[in-house]
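Exercise: predict the fold of this chain.
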Amino acid sequence: MKNFSKLFSLLCLLLVSAAFFSGCSDDDTLPQLTGESKQFILFTKSNPAISGTVTFSKRNDNTTLITLQLSGTSAGGSHPAHIHAGTAAEGGAILLDLSSVNGSTGKSETVVTALNNGSPITYEQLINLDGYVNIHLSGTDLVTLIAQGDIGINELTSTSKTYTLSAVSNSAISGTAKFTKRVSGKALVSIALTGTTPGVSSIAHIHVNTVAQTGGVVVDLTSVTGSTGKSDTSVNKLNTGVAITYDELLNFNGYINVHESASALSTLIAQGDIGKNELTNTSKTYTLNAVSNNAISGTAKFTKRVSGETLVSISLTGTTVGVSSPAHIHLNTAAQGGAIAIDLTSIIGATGKSETSVSKLNNGTTIIYDELLNFNGYINVHQSASNLATIIAQGNIGANAVNSNIVNYDITNTGSSSYLFNGGGLTNGNNPSLTLQRGKTYSFTVNAPGHPFLIKTVQTTGSANGYNNGVTNNGASSGVISFTVPSNAPNTLYYICEFHSSMTGIITITN
């Protein structure tokens, strides 16, 4: 009996051990998560309360677990889900059916080894897929999306740039164009306008050049939906087929136009410069005084672009509807008069406004914003093209502007013996010693043909040893030399003629 009891106990132990090791063996054969995963955001669509994530998790049997997790879904609901080809902005065919999201939990899980067409697909291929996820309201309402998000190479990064779209024909409509970089380097262009009309679809494009210059369409954008004021376009090439990346778009010579509708393309509702044409917050406004008609006056605003070029915006009050008034930037001061240096866009009588993008003089010489602010010039606005003799508004700009922080010197010569200075507190100063202050700007308007005026570190003739830090046009014998004195300028500099040692003076630099 005792032997039987021992035998029975041993048999039980063997059975328990077999069951235990059998169970362990079964667990070991089940697919396990490797710990590698990638999560993408699912954004709200028709219901602002619903959003979430899609997570791709790698398993050790070369399969992928795709987990959808939404917040804000309702108990009892079942929401079909799919992975599509392309981007959410472009739309595309279904590549892969996913398990429907359970409304009670907001969750679904799908184990994936292949696409719907039978093509095998790995975890690595899925997280680099050219695709996006759609989650629909129900099996009977696939049109209504409750959540959506780009995945793989289409994932949106945190890198973006937003440009202003200003009102044009309707002051109630304005907004922004946001450029967001994708993992692939492509761009998502998202337009958001306020004040649009439900039921109206507004055509949008990226054009070449600036708003002031105008230019042809280079990229067709998705039309703006009137009920939301929004549109999304995935951009990776121009209409010509030339590839363009996010980084290239941020340096593009372009602007955006949004038109009222396909049947009213001539009516613009919003517009804005983008890329290198974007306007900065740096600007300078000059007064345009009345001349022939006391009722007409205004301003000329110079605004710096990202590229360093300038938008010149003239705004006048009292102009006449139907009359177009030519405008120009001239050399010298309004009191002196001078030749036209830059043609500006004519002022429209109905609005009193004009805009001109300026990057060069009429003779082709490049000129940037900082140089225009030191320019020896003035603006004339004429009554009309048929009556150029009548000036309706006029004002000095740049170095000639009243209350300018720039100190102006007019320099001529007395033969080959000396320079003659006027301005800056000097009257017919003969080779005067100058005291300049660090941080201030000085303008030397030179009219001394044959006597190049040089700012130098040594008091010798010739072109060597020129001091060019903060100096533009050093060595001019006719023109404007601008000198913004840097903080590290030496205590003593010199001006001297390139050819004549008697035409010279000392420049003392102070703080």
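Check your answer against the key: The first helix runs from residue 2 to 29.
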